[in-house]
Amino acid sequence: MQTPDGLVVLGPGEGRAHGDITVKVEARETGAGWGAVVVRGDQGTSGRTHVHRGESEAFFILEGDVELWGPQSVTRLSPGTFILVPPDTEHALKVLTDEARWLAIWPPSLDGLLDDLDDARRAGRDDPDTTREIRRRHGVVPGERGVEG
Fold this sequence. Notes:
Blueprint: E1 16-18, E2 21-25, H1 27-30, E3 35-42, E4 50-52, E5 57-63, E6 66-69, E7 74-77, E8 82-85, E9 92-95, E10 99-106, H2 113-122, H3 128-137, E11 140-142
Antiparallel strand pairs: 1-2, 2-3, 3-10, 4-11, 5-8, 5-10, 6-7, 6-9
Helix pairs in contact: 2-3
């Protein structure tokens, strides 16, 4: 929805859904170099450790407990916690409770990543090599540290 004075308002659940990730806004729409998504995960799920070359990322934990995996540490986080991941810093989140949700403030290179992954899946090309190449094109470099799970 857009208010009469041009403010954009998305209610709960609104946005472009890609599985457990809902895109609220992409960087190209903000004019500010950032996008925002809401991520939902079940216990034990985690993202791969990865790095964004030259770009930072941020998270705000909305519900549930998660672990933040850094290059050398693991930190338990609860709702209300804000995380800033500096550029070129390996990171991942792992869900510890039955379910967790967080707001992710994404760097501009991630614009279109979820669309490209969905397109590859629909075309039957969701193999690890294709997925890795799509992620690389969007500035996501695999990390060296695995998330135990």
